Amino acid sequence: MASTFTYNDENSLFNFVVKEGNGVKGLVDSGLTEVPDRYIQPPQHRINKLHIAESLKDMTIDLSELDGPNHDQVAKAITHAAETLGFFQVVNHGVPLELLESLKVVAHKFFAQPAEKKAVYLKGVSPSPMVKYGTSFVPEKEKALEWKDYVSMTYTNDGDAHNFWPNECKEVALEYIKTSTEMVKKLLQTLIGNLGVKADDSRLDELVGLKMVNMNFYPTCPNPEVTVGVGRHSDMGTLTVLLQDGIGGLYVKKGESASKEDEEWIEIPPIDGALVINVGDTLQILSNGRYKSAEHRVRTTSTESRVSVPIFNTPLPVVKIGPFPELVARDGVARYREVMFGEYMNNFFSNSHDGKKSLDFASA
Ligand SMILES: O=C(O)CCC(=O)C(=O)O
């Protein structure tokens, strides 16, 4: 990899970090002591501690109870969370705890490799369009870059995963997808059932038919107060399952309508063995606005590098998404238009993170 670059020369920095695949990790390893200008967020996007409310400690749901006598109570807690914050955590979710530990280990292992090993998965050269290594979100379009490197693996079938996904993480990532699938379907069934809508098994499968597992790496940052790990955004899919490590730094916005000055953000505290679940735009659209996709973001830290491993469960690109007809009839209005999920996804990936603006693509 090229080793000469100038921190505050935009082109030279962009080439080093983005095009050559050195990532934020390469930047940090080069020994920088302060973040380059390109990473400095405008004040309104910085994570201001004054506006951060307490940690969300009391929204952890024991999913094993969904099959027992407390079913109704647990289903109510799930739907309440989806109608309000759009975020909750689950335990006894069916994903083995040792697997969760292995995921964190392999994520660190992947990013610890020399840049040239990771750069083989850069967009345009990756052996498969289903595997992509990169940094930030849409660097070409962002005024300020996000302090994050990632590798993204889209599941098509086991054979492709074995052939194309990175050796360092493919077995565990695949197992994570397989062991979480039933939980995701159960949650979706509960949420859709609560709307009084009938969705058979094949419709449920369609709505979470595309699975993308990402490994995110947030290196230590010398200036956490002016940077972000991930900027404010909601996820595009139906439900996201997220494993975070013990470092913390994931925040969700409380309420939808507050002005930037008044908004409150709540930290989703790391809980050993738990998985974080959040509602994505697709579920907000399907439910005609009843369930809220969660606007969230991630801060950086100067003490330790952080990893997280989300699975984005989304519809297949050819699936049409729009409010369930039963709800439109009941509400007397369709709050969103019907769109092909593939189009929604293309729009999502062509714009930098900007809160819940992604939903405008489907506004009625
Ligand atoms: O790292 C996290 O906790 C959240 C990651 C995230 O929001 C994303 O990858 O879209």
Note poorly predicted spans: none
The CATH H-level superfamily is: B-lactam Antibiotic, Isopenicillin N Synthase, Chain
Mean pLDDT: 94
H and E order: HHEEHEHHEEHHHEEEEEEHEEEHEH
Task: Kindly state the percentage of residues in helix.
Answer: 25-40%
From the 3D structure, determine the CATH topology: Jelly Rolls
- Shape by Cα distribution: globular
Helix run count:
11
Largest sheet entry: 8 strands, mixed
Strand count: 15
Strand order of the largest sheet: 2-3-11-8-13-6-5-4
Catalytic activity: (E)-feruloyl-CoA + 2-oxoglutarate + O2 = (E)-6-hydroxyferuloyl-CoA + succinate + CO2
Pathway: Phenylpropanoid metabolism
Protein name: feruloyl-CoA 6-hydroxylase
Keywords: Dioxygenase, Iron, Metal-binding, Oxidoreductase
Structure description:
By secondary structure, this protein is an alpha+beta fold. It has a single domain (10-362), classed as Jelly Rolls (Sandwich), CATH 2.60.120. 31% of the residues lie in helices and 20% in strands. The chain has eleven helices and 15 strands. It has an eight-stranded mixed β-sheet. A five-stranded mixed β-sheet has the order 1-10-9-12-7, with no helix packed on it. Strands 14-15 form a two-stranded antiparallel ribbon. α3 (71-83) packs across α7 (170-194) and α4 (97-112) packs across α7 (170-194). The chain is globular. It starts with 9 loop residues before the first helix and ends in a 15-residue tail after the last helix. The mean pLDDT is 94. Bound molecules: 2-oxoglutaric acid. 2-oxoglutaric acid (AKG) binds next to β6, β8, β12 and β13. 2-oxoglutaric acid binds at residues 214, 216, 230, 242, 244, 250, 296, 298, 308, 310.
